[in-house]
Structure formats: structure tokens, C-alpha cells
Amino acid sequence: MADYLLETKRLRFRTWDAGDLDLARTLWGDERVTKFIDARGRLSDEMVQERLDREIESGLVDGIQYWPIFLLEDDSFVGCCGLRSYDYNSRVMEIGAHIVYDYWGRKIASEALVAVIKYSFVELSIYGLFAGHNPENQASRALLKKLGFRYTHKEFYKPTGLMHPSYLMTVDDYRDRLKK
């Protein structure tokens, strides 16, 4: 049994490791998932391996990654959610989630993001969270607004080649939402 980093009502998070290629392939090898995050469409096994390697390296170097997430009830892999470095000097991290297609519509991303938001502000003591989404992904837009992110600007995202609507949540925004 793996050691888990975070746990919610339905989910648990752990770090990626070298033996996770099949899990990574389930997620990033599915064009329905990658259509919003990578202009190359379905990623080849080699591209999925490169993505997995970057996540593992991020975990080793920065102590953060888009951690794989699993259902508590049966340990099914449902995607990943986590952090990336964004603006180190300002203590702002990028947050995001990628969900296995078969689990879309089950509020997994929402539950996972809420856990990572809390972890970011409470455990890591960061100043802010940056998030962006593909302009065609209206579900991500609605979710970010529901979670309390504020639209700030459009930003070029190299993997899609598009200007992505971009959002910010500061620690003060987070504390204000807790008071409501």
C-alpha cells in the first residue's frame, strides 16, 4: 500500500513513481482528456512517459506535482491534481487537475482541487494559486469561478498554442471564503 499525501471524503493522493506508466497512459493517452491540455491530441506512449518523468522530477526537485488520485472505496485511479511552480518570487503556484474520462461529471476535480487549495495555503503557506483553462473548456471555467478564483488575464499556454483565460486565488481570498 502506498503512502498517501492527502485524503478527502472520497479520494486519496500519492506521488507518481516510475511504475505508474499504465496509470499515466490511462489519463494522458486518452485524447478526450488531452484535447484541452495538449494540441498534439492523443499522446504516444513515449510522450506519456515524458510527462510522467516531468511529474516525478517535479516531485523530487520542488516537492510538488500533479499528484495521482484514487477513489477511497476501491483504489481506482481517477486522475491527478496538484501544483507546479509558477512565480517562485511571489510565492504563487499553478494548480490544476486532469481527470480520467470515465470519471468526468462526478465532481472529482472539484473535491480534489478543494483539498489541494487547502493544502497549498495551510501546509505550504503560499501566497497565491494561479489557474488557467483552455478557452473551449467551459466546465473548467465554471469550476474555477465556483471555487473562488478571480479572472485576471489571458495568458499564452505553449502546449495548446492558445491564449488561456487565467485566474488567481490569494491566501486572503481563501480566508474570506472560509468566513462565509
State the main characteristics.
alpha+beta; Aminopeptidase; 8-stranded mixed sheet
Quick structural summary:
By secondary structure, the protein is an alpha+beta fold. The protein contains six helices and eight strands, in the order E-E-H-H-H-E-E-E-H-E-H-E-E-H. Strands 1-2-3-4-5-6-8-7 form an eight-stranded mixed beta sheet, with helices on both faces.
Structural commentary:
The chain has helices at 21-28, 31-34, 45-62, 108-123, 138-147, 171-179, and strands spanning 6-7, 11-13, 66-71, 77-87, 92-99, 128-132, 150-157, 162-170. The protein is of the alpha+beta class. It has a domain at 6-128: Aminopeptidase, CATH 3.40.630.30. Helix 4 links the parallel strand 5 (92-99) and strand 6. The model has no long low-confidence stretch (mean pLDDT 95).
- Going by helix content, strand content and strand pairing, the class is alpha+beta
Molecular shape = globular
Tally of strands: 8
Mean pLDDT score: 95
Based on CA atoms alone, the radius of gyration comes out at 15 Å
- The CATH homologous superfamily of the domain at 6-128 is termed Gcn5-related N-acetyltransferase (GNAT)
